[in-house]
Design brief:
This protein is mainly α. The protein contains 16 helices and two strands. Strands 1-2 form a two-stranded antiparallel sheet.
Length: 439
């Protein structure tokens, strides 16, 4: 511990806090996108992830993701159960060591955010208790192995994608983005569509809340990506500016697409576009030039905007567009590395197809996308199916129609008694009133 680099350690700890801020940011973003009667439930799904995943990460999650490889680069062992053996240890190259606990905290926030992202796919119709169980199991069986594949490296015995195959993923295009998108698709296929899907508009109840959440996500994403350098260096600076450029490009590309398609540029569109650009640059931010980041952000804004509209034609109810934004955006970013990567940007990177590197890297990136999506989809579908058959995953039809805020939490987000004169959004509280009548 005497050899730790103070500046690098401070940056990783600050970045951990920035990533943690993304969780309430996502809660606001998602909470504003759902109908008022389920907004608290949506926020609770994100906040509960901070509690559940933190404990799971402490007990065994970090060990499975970053413990000594148990074989074939697929999963870690149990060397860091309870994080006791992580005390007074460091990680990083000579001269840039940081405490292992700082790294564990940083990666913990990645796991928390990924679970929170996934919650948007099943908004408005999920039992809260079932979600808690799913969160714990999914973090262990899906997220931890994929984090090991993508992030773990230990002198030649690292995760099979990062070390053995040579896939480039700077900050989580696979373990975070494609993983959440593929898992979201599996979840919605198990749980089914919301009551009124395709008939009711189901518009966001608070666009100002959506924009506030998007702003907090954008801010936190700077730490999410630049912090992944694990040092205060040129790579961190490159990742930071590339994140800003791609998010801005995604925001503008999305509303330009909307303007051409629908005649109007929307506030929901600019928020979604910024997120799609940030998603796509996540794996690429440490390997491409700023112009490469611009190209990836523009592509993500257009492709993700188109992908989101496909869910109605394909018939799956991904409530808040996790598949279209995070899944598709993650693929855009991973393949973008194969096209736009420049070895001069990062000594651990390579040249992409457009810079004389040939198609080999692009092929490896594509394989990583397929492997991640397949594993995440299959295992998530199995977990969700088991929960659905045992304790039930979906809220009842009556509960869904009444709103999950009241039926799952006995609360409502807004007290509009003086304005609305009662009702679900007013001063009336069905569960409380029923109890008072019985008394």
């Amino acid at each position: 511990m005497d050899n730790i680099n103070g500046a690098d350690t401070a940056w990783v700890m600050i970045s951990s806090a920035l990533v943690m801020l993304m969780v309430p940011g996502l809660a606001f973003f998602y909470g504003g996108m759902v109908r008022a009667k389920s907004s608290l439930n949506m926020i609770m799904m994100s906040f509960s992830a901070m509690g559940v995943v933190t404990i799971v990460w402490l007990l065994v999650g970090f060990s499975l993701a970053f413990g000594t490889d148990a074989g074939a680069g697929l999963i870690g062992n149990f060397s860091y159960i309870g994080l006791t053996d992580a005390l007074n240890r460091t990680v990083g190259p000579e001269g840039h060591e940081i405490p292992l606990l700082a790294f564990a905290a940083f990666q913990m926030m990645f796991a928390v955010v990924t679970v929170a992202i996934l919650s948007g796919a099943v908004a408005d119709r999920t039992k809260f208790g079932a979600w808690i169980v799913f969160t714990a199991v999914w973090a262990l069986l899906v997220y931890a192995p994929l984090a090991h594949w993508a992030f773990f490296f230990d002198g030649g015995s690292g995760g099979w994608m990062s070390d053995r195959l040579g896939v480039l993923d700077f900050a989580g295009g696979t373990a975070v983005e494609i993983n959440s998108g593929a898992s979201a698709l599996a979840l919605v296929l198990v749980i089914g569509r919301r009551v009124g899907f395709r008939q009711d508009p189901m518009r966001p109840h608070s666009l100002p809340l959506v924009l506030l959440g998007a702003g907090l996500l954008w801010f936190g994403w700077l730490g999410f990506n630049a912090g992944s350098a694990l040092a205060v260096n040129g790579t961190a600076a490159t990742a930071l500016i590339n994140t800003q450029i791609a998010a801005a490009a995604g925001a503008l590309a999305w509303i330009a697409f909307e303007k051409l398609r629908d005649g109007k540029a929307t506030t929901l569109g600019i928020a979604s576009g910024a997120v799609s650009g940030a998603v796509a640059i996540t794996p690429a931010c440490g390997f491409v030039t700023p112009l490469g980041a611009l190209a990836i952000g523009l592509a993500a804004g257009i492709i993700c905007a188109w992908a989101v509209s496909r869910k109605y034609k394909l018939g799956f109810d991904d409530s808040l567009d996790v598949v279209g934004v995070h899944g598709v955006g993650g693929i855009v970013g991973m393949l973008g590395i194969g096209l736009f990567a420049v070895a001069a940007v990062n000594t651990s990177g390579r040249d992409g197809l457009f810079f004389g590197g040939g198609a080999e890297l692009l092929g490896k990136q594509a394989l990583a996308c397929v492997a991640t999506a397949a594993y995440a989809f299959v295992v998530t579908w199995i977990i969700a199916k088991v929960i659905d058959k045992t304790m039930g995953f979906r809220a009842t039809r009556d509960d869904e129609i009444a709103g999950l805020d009241v039926t799952q939490h006995a609360e409502s987000a807004y007290d509009l008694a003086g304005v609305a004169g009662g009702g679900i959004l007013g001063g009336s509280h069905p569960l409380r009133d029923r109890k008072q009548e019985e008394e």
